[in-house]
Each structure stands twice: as C-alpha cells, then as structure tokens.
Amino acid sequence: QNKPPPKLILEPHPSLPYNALTPSTSGLPPPTMDSAVNTPFFFRQRAGSMPWNKLETLDVERIVRDVDLDALQSLLDILTFTKLNPNISAPRDVKGESLAIRGMQLQQLIVEYLLNVQESMNQSEQTLKQELRAAAHHVADLDSQLDRLNTRNKSLKRELKMYQAVVKTCENMLTYYGLDSAEIFLAARASAGHYGKNPPPPFDKGDQAKRPQGLSASLENLEKEARICMSEVPASSFPDVAGMTDEIGTIVDKISSLRTALSANRSLEKEVPPPAPAPAPAPAPAPPPESPPSPV
C-alpha cells in the first residue's frame, strides 16, 4: 500500500502571506504546498547574519498587546532562515537584556500563530470534507433521479408512438368513409361549447324500455323533452335562438293540443254505452213423427 503524503505542519494563512517558502538564493527548490504530490520535506540551508539592530528596536510586549501580525511577518524570514554563528554572542540592548532572548520570544509568537493557522485549516478541511460527502450524496441522488427520468422518457416515447399510430388509423378510417377529421373535431368543440359541463346523457336501452308505451305516453314524453330543451338553451348560445325557441314553443303547443284531443276522444269512448246484443233467434219446432202405414 502507498503511504499517505506527509501532512503539512506549517501552512500559510490568508491574512498572513508566508514568504518563507519562496525560492531562496541557495538554488534549492522550495518545498511544495500541494499535499497531493508526495514530495519529501527537507530543511533549507541557512545564510546571512542576524540583524541585531532591528531586533533591538522591537517591543515584544506591544506586539503581543496589539497582535501585530505584520511585524511578525517582517521578521519571519529573518528569524527562520538566518544563519546563527555559535562563536558570536548575542549583543544586549540599552537595558542590558540579551537580544537572543528577544528573538526567542518572537519565534514563540510566530510558532503560536502558525499553530493557530494549522488548527484553523484542519477545521476548514473537516468542514470541506463534510460538504464534499453531502455533495457526493446529492450527486448520487441526482443520478438516480436522472435514470428514473430517462426510463420514464423512454416509456412516454413508446406511448407517443402508439398514440400516433392510433390517430393515424382513425384518420385513415375517416378518410375512407368520406369524413374530414377537422369537421369532426370542430363539431365536437361546438358541442362542448353548447352543453358546457352538462352534456346530455348517452342513450340507454334500459331507459328506453322503461318508458311507457302508447301514443299518449309518447306525446307526454315528447312534450317534457321539448320543455326541458327550452329551459336549458340560454338566450346567448346562438344568434337565432329566439326564433328557435318560438318554434319549439309552437311544437309544444301542438303536442299539448294532440294530447288534449286524444284524452277527449278516450273520454267520449268511455261515456257512449256499448250497443245491446241482438236477441238470439227462437229455435224451429221439431217436425211431428211420421205414423206407421195402416195395414190393408
């Protein structure tokens, strides 16, 4: 198994540019910042001398109090990559304090801040990993949804082809019987606009069988249907609806007259008594019996 790349201990923070990892004058390449590249860490060569006069002008207490990160950044390269000569002792400031102690204090502040940067980057890394996991789950859900939609799309395409074939067959049948499909659809649309949401019920043979038979009953049903038709057709449905309503009213009046005449005729038939039956003819008398001949 491949070993994981070495974890970067000190890493720059956005508010503190880390210039210590810039190319040096020694010719050695700086260590990489990309943890994905398995490059071993190494220490750079030290060069130059320590600027003790610059350390002498610094106030460590002020830097701690004001959290002066810019001052620490200006000393980062100097304190980290300057070559210290053990044969040369560190000078003292005007107060008699050793500048080596002051440099050590500054190094402590720098290391403390870089440790804080490391912790903050570790937390950011964990947060990004959680977001990456959530994004991966979301992508997986989207892939599953895409598969379902593709399957549904294929099914709808098959249904569409089937319905297109059915429509084509119907058009061929209409053409065969001499009917125009446009006229059929226009008639259906006109019927829907006329009846609205209350279309007439379909013809039922059972209802037809239940209707009373006879001329009077037929006239009564015809009159009822005509009156229902007059009440259901609004005045704004057609331009000539007023004349149509008058004609229907005339038909209703004629039907009523026919019903009245038929009822009167039946009443007269009930009032006239039937003729008396003719008496039966009397039976003819029977002929007398013949007497036997007398003897001579």
Automatic annotation (TrEMBL):
Keywords: Coiled coil. Residues 41-161 form the Cilium assembly protein DZIP1 N-terminal domain. GO terms for molecular function: zinc ion binding. The keyword Signal does not apply. It comes from the Eukaryota. Residues 266-296 are annotated as: Disordered. The keyword Transferase does not apply. It holds the Pfam family Dzip-like_N. Residues 139-173 form a coiled coil. One of its GO terms (cellular component) is cytoplasm. Residues 273-296 have a biased composition (Pro residues). PANTHER family: CILIUM ASSEMBLY PROTEIN DZIP1L, ZINC FINGER PROTEIN DZIP1. This is Cilium assembly protein DZIP1 N-terminal domain-containing protein.
